[in-house]
Design goal:
Layout: H1 9-30, H2 33-59
Helix pairs in contact: 1-2
Length: 61
């Protein structure tokens, strides 16, 4: 019953991932390729975390 009110960490990480991708796109459009590369690397790290959490949730009954 109390799990109903628990925050979903995967959802939070996906939102952060989407925000990083959008920031990276805006940096690329403005011509700041160094910032684009940094933000893309950060978003890839977030995506790895999302995948790990999803696998953990699937393995738990």
């Amino acid at each position: 019953m109390f799990g109903l009110f628990k925050k979903d960490p995967v959802k939070k990480l996906r939102q952060q991932y989407d925000q990083k991708l959008e920031q990276a796109m805006l940096a690329q459009r403005s011509g700041n390729l160094r910032l684009f590369a940094d933000l893309t690397a950060e978003s890839e790290a977030l995506w790895q975390q999302v995948q790990q959490l999803e696998q953990q949730q699937k393995s738990q009954p």
